[in-house]
Structure formats: C-alpha cells, structure tokens
C-alpha cells in the first residue's frame, strides 16, 4: 500500500531537478561567497568557467559573457575572490552550480601567497640574478628534455625540433610533472642529466593547468638545483601567463613548451642561410685578394727590364764608346803629329851635334809615345770586344740560332709558362730564319728533360 501511494507521487528527473533548483533559489537566492579560483577558463563565447574552493570543499561556477565583461581585473588561478552568485543546479548534469553575477578580489589565495613568499626569499638571496644564468650554446649537438613521456608538451617539443632542427640529437629524461612525487622526480632527472653530461642544453617543459597542477615547479629544492645546474636550462612550463619559480631560476624562460624548443637550438634553414652568406663573403674576399695580387704582379712586371730594352741600351752604349774611342785616337794622333812637327822645327834650328842628340831623343820619345798609343788602342779594343760579346749574349737572334724559338700569345706577350697555353689559343712561333702562326689544339702536360733542367736552374737561381 505504501509503494502504491509513493508511485502516485513519482517525479521525472527533469521535474525533480527543476523543483530542487527552485527550492535552492527560493532558500538562498543571491549569496556572497569567498574562495580561491581554481581551473579558470574563458571560452571562445566569452563565458567563464571555474571552481571556487577553500580548504574543505569546492563549488562549480559559471559567469556569462555579459557579466564577465564587467570584471575590471584578470582572474587567475590561486586568486582569492568574493563573488555574488545565484545558487542553482546545472540541469543537464544535475550538479550544484553558482551563476556568478559579479566578482571582485578578496585578497590572494593560499597558493599564491606561498608562491610570492618563496619568490621574494629566493630573489633576496640572489638566486634569480641574471649574472648567475648560463648562456645557451649557439649550436648544441644534443638537447635533453625533462618531462613526462605521456605529456602533450613532449609531443609538441619533438615535432618542433624535428621540423626546425633535425640536426640536433634528443635525449629524454622522464619525470612526473604533477602530483606529490613530481618535485622529487624532476630533481632526480635534472641531477641525472648534469651527471651524464651527454647533452648541451636542457628543456624543462609541461603543458598548462591550474596553479595547483603546476605546483611541482614551485618546489624550493628544484629551484635551487636549476640555479646551480652546470647545463643551461630552458623552462617552458604552462602558458604565456603562467609563472613558476622554475621560470625564474632557469637560464631562460619560454612562454610555452613549443617556444622552449625554438629557443634551445637554431633552425637548420637559418644555419644553411648563414653558411651561404659566409660562403659568398669568403668568395668575395678571395676574389678581392686575387685582384690585389694581380695588380701587384702587374706593377712588379712593369718594373722589370725587358730583354729588348736591355739589348738596345747595351747597343747604344757600345756605339757611344766606339765614337768616343775613334775621337780619342784621332785627337791623340793629331797631338802627336803636331808635337813631332814642333820638335822637327826646333831640331832644324839647333847645331848639328845637338840636332843629332835631339833627333835621337825625339825618336825615342816617338817610339814610346806610339807604344803608349798602341797599348791604349789595344785596351779600348779589348773593352769593345767584351761589350760585343755581352751584346751577342743578349741578342735573341743568337739564342734562336742555337735551335730555340719564341712563342707569342694573341695579346702580343711572350709566353713564359707552358701552363698558360690553352686549347683554341692563337700562337706565333719564331725561329732564327722564319715565323709561323698556329692555333692550339688539345694540350696535355708531359715530362721533358729540358723542363726539369729549367726548373732546377730556376731553383738554383732563387
């Protein structure tokens, strides 16, 4: 009978939920509640969803776009706020829910207060000073990643490194990134990486989450180990607005795990571009140096006397000496004749005995004078013969008479090195009696005794 009476009062689920919601609103209406924000998210529609918690309980909250637009600060996890909200039920899931109408800060939450207290103390010790941070290597050969193997951040980092820097080897140091054991796991992974010394830089990464989800990265021993690490550490924990003690203690803070992967190693495309620029700069420098040396060689070549100019100068010197010698001989002969005529005139005026004595003296003087003139002529002729022999040695025609030939290129310059001859080149070959023009066909170097002899002479002369 009792079951029949209760069956007559059976509720549908939706009707019961609506009745409970009406009862709650009628009982409580709009209430003011203080608590700490946890898991705050802002949807694309502009609605905000979060939980309001304290040490013993939590309530789900929703704040619709029109009300959220009136909030004059940026709500964040761990922040203590005071809200005014209507108590009700979220009917699709039958969950208790507060529909927030207004929100204002009510002092910082417990986690945030502890974070700020730790940060201030460690900063006062100089643990976060820029002078203590290690510079990232410009071209790391291996990168270590400290994170959970199941974390989505690991996938993002591996994809980024594989796309941008495939030349870098990756070593993973697994560690839990959330929960009670996470700080000790992260510390062990960091110590293992420093002791093995198998990488050049470390990435400490994790995806975003609430402040309590990221609390392992606010561990004081972990922050001190990051500051003392021999390996530079790039910390990419959470999203761009998330900050942890690990961010301040690490060598570099990245906004996201993907940004950490981009900071730790240069992109292969950038390295190739830099190498191409260096290659072009090196080629330009080499061309400039070659041009300067060619100009220097041309200046030295102009300073060297050519055989033709040397030959002409020797010929002019020989002709000048011959003219001077002839003039000198003629002048000496004229002076001798004049002296002889003077002595003959004087002899005719002397007595016969003195005349004979003077005649003997004059004959002896003439003999000695003629001997001196003959010796002078022989010395001059000997010098003239030496100049003629030098002239003959410098005469290219004499060299050609011995079987040599001269080769001129198309630019009119004498070829001095067989290596300068190339296929298709027009040459002029001259011997002692003739000259011929020819075009060069196929060329190849050969071992010739004369070439070896000339190389030996070149070394001896140097």
From TrEMBL:
It catalyses: Exonucleolytic cleavage in either 5'- to 3'- or 3'- to 5'-direction to yield nucleoside 5'-phosphates. One of its GO terms (biological process) is DNA catabolic process. It is found in: Cytoplasm. One of its GO terms (molecular function) is exodeoxyribonuclease VII activity. Coiled coil: none annotated. The keyword Cell division does not apply. Keywords: Cytoplasm, Exonuclease, Hydrolase, Nuclease. InterPro entries: Exonuc_VII_L, Exonuc_VII_lsu_C, OB-fold_nuc-bd_dom. It comes from the Bacteria. GO terms for cellular component: cytoplasm; exodeoxyribonuclease VII complex. Residues 127-436 form the Exonuclease VII large subunit C-terminal domain. Its EC number is 3.1.11.6. Residues 11-104 form the OB-fold nucleic acid binding domain. The keyword Cytoplasm applies. Heterooligomer composed of large and small subunits. Bidirectionally degrades single-stranded DNA into large acid-insoluble oligonucleotides, which are then degraded further into small acid-soluble oligonucleotides. Belongs to the XseA family. PANTHER family: EXODEOXYRIBONUCLEASE 7 LARGE SUBUNIT (PTHR30008). This is Exodeoxyribonuclease 7 large subunit. It comes from Thiomonas delicata. The gene is xseA.
């Amino acid at each position: 009978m009792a079951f029949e009476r209760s069956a007559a009062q059976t509720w549908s689920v939706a009707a019961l939920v609506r009745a409970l919601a009406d009862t709650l609103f009628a009982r409580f209406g709009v209430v003011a509640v203080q608590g700490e924000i946890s898991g705050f998210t802002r949807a694309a529609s502009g609605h905000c969803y979060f939980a309001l918690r304290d040490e013993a309980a939590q309530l789900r909250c929703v704040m619709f776009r029109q009300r959220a637009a009136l909030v004059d600060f940026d709500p964040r996890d761990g922040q203590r706020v005071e809200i005014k909200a209507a108590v009700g039920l979220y009917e699709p899931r039958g969950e208790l829910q507060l529909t927030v109408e207004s929100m204002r800060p009510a002092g910082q939450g417990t986690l945030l207060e502890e974070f700020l207290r730790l940060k201030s103390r460690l900063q006062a010790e100089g643990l976060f000073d820029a002078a203590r941070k290690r510079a990232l290597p410009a071209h790391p050969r291996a990168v270590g990643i400290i994170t959970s193997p199941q974390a989505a951040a690991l996938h993002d980092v591996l994809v980024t490194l594989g796309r941008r820097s495939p030349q870098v080897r990756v070593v993973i140091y697994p560690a839990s990134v959330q929960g009670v054991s996470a700080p000790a796991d992260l510390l062990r992974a960091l110590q293992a990486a420093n002791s093995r010394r198998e990488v050049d830089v470390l990435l400490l990464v994790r995806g975003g989450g609430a402040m309590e989800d990221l609390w392992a990265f606010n561990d004081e021993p972990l922050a001190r180990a990051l500051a003392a690490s021999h390996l530079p550490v790039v910390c990419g924990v959470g999203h761009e607005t998330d900050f942890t003690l690990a961010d301040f203690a690490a060598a570099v803070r990245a906004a996201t795990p993907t940004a950490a992967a981009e900071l730790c190693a240069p992109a292969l495309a950038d390295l190739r571009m830099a190498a191409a620029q260096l290659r072009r700069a090196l080629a330009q420098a080499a061309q400039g140096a070659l041009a300067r040396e060619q100009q220097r060689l041309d200046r030295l070549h102009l300073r060297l006397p050519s055989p033709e100019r040397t030959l002409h100068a020797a010929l002019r010197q020989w002709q000048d000496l011959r003219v001077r010698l002839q003039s000198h001989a003629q002048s000496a002969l004229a002076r001798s004749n004049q002296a002889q005529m003077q002595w003959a005139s004087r002899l005719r005026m002397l007595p016969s005995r003195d005349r004979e004595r003077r005649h003997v003296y004059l004959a002896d003087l003439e003999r000695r004078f003629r001997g001196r003139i003959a010796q002078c002529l022989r010395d001059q002729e000997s010098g003239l013969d030496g100049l003629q022999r030098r002239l003959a040695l410098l005469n290219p025609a004499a060299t050609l008479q011995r079987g040599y030939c001269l080769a001129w290129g198309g630019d009119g310059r004498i070829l001095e090195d067989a290596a300068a001859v190339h296929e298709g080149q027009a040459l002029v070959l001259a011997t002692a009696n003739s000259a011929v023009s020819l075009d060069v066909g196929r060329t190849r170097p050969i071992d010739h005794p004369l070439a070896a002899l000339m190389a030996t002479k070149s070394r001896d002369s140097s």
